[in-house]
């Protein structure tokens, strides 16, 4: 099961710090800052260094104000909004992240399309949730350490995405972790929740740097679980050993 996956067992976690990775990460950076990619754009590699790209749809779920838009901006290297505003519809952000598989030594570009939709909009317009669920590969369930109700609402958020043939990667993200002086949720409660639900819990917060270190652990962990889920699905479906063949672009 994906929740039993040991971090770093599939993807080399500190590869972004190795000299070997410099050429790959230079394709997603400009003047030490992350490049912004449109829906039809991708990192340009030299023909002799071309690598496969796998694409995934990731939905951010959570109450209004927990930081879904800020998390998407953080992961994509965008400026985090200084003021909160409610997402009125669906907003998407595309980011690329290169990884190296531990066993084969193969390098892949992960293309992650982050979907962010306001909670009130989901309640008001019935067609939005089915659109968000369509061909989704992962769901990040967000709560804020400064909002107790958002933590208590997690079971409802998770139940909304449960299904009989569920192959969606699920992870929980605690935002505003840096505001520990104002925390309404204890570390003990987070550990208990993680043990009960069997889902990994990641924590984010603080300022965003121009480097990769503040998002590398998060994106590597997400990429690892997505790749593992595809390999498990390929095994169950008795497909060829090539994982995620249909998603190579």
TrEMBL record:
The keyword Amino-acid biosynthesis does not apply. The keyword Cell wall biogenesis/degradation does not apply. It is found in: Cytoplasm, Cytoskeleton, Cilium basal body. Keywords: Cell projection, Cilium, Cilium biogenesis/degradation, Cytoplasm, Cytoskeleton, Exocytosis, GTP-binding, Nucleotide-binding, Protein transport, Transport. InterPro entries: P-loop_NTPase, RSG1, Small_GTPase. Belongs to the small GTPase superfamily. Rab family. This is Ciliogenesis and planar polarity effector 2. One of its GO terms (biological process) is protein transport. Its main location: cytoplasm. Pfam families: Ras. GO terms for molecular function: GTP binding; GTPase activity.
């Amino acid at each position: 099961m994906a929740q039993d996956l040991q971090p770093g067992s599939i993807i080399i976690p500190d590869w972004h710090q190795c000299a070997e990775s410099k050429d790959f990460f230079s394709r997603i950076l400009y003047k030490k800052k992350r490049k912004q990619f449109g829906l039809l754009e991708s990192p340009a590699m030299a023909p002799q260094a071309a690598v496969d790209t796998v694409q995934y749809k990731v939905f951010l779920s959570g109450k209004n104000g927990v930081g879904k838009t800020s998390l998407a901006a953080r992961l994509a290297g965008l400026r985090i909004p200084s003021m909160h505003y409610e997402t009125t519809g669906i907003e998407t952000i595309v980011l690329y992240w290169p990884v190296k598989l531990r066993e084969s030594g193969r390098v892949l570009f992960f293309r992650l399309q982050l979907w962010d939709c306001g909670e009130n909009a989901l309640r008001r317009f019935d067609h939005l949730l089915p659109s968000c669920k369509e061909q989704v590969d992962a769901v990040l369930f967000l709560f804020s350490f400064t909002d107790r109700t958002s933590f208590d609402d997690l079971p409802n958020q998770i139940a909304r995405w449960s299904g009989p043939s569920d192959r969606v990667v699920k992870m929980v993200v605690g935002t505003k972790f840096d505001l520990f002086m104002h925390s309404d949720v204890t570390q003990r409660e987070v550990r208990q929740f993680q043990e009960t639900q069997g889902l990994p819990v990641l924590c984010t917060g603080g300022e965003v740097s121009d480097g990769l270190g503040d998002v590398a652990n998060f994106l590597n962990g997400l990429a690892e679980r997505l790749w593992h889920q595809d390999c498990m699905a390929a095994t169950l479906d008795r497909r060829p050993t090539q994982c995620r063949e249909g998603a190579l672009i």
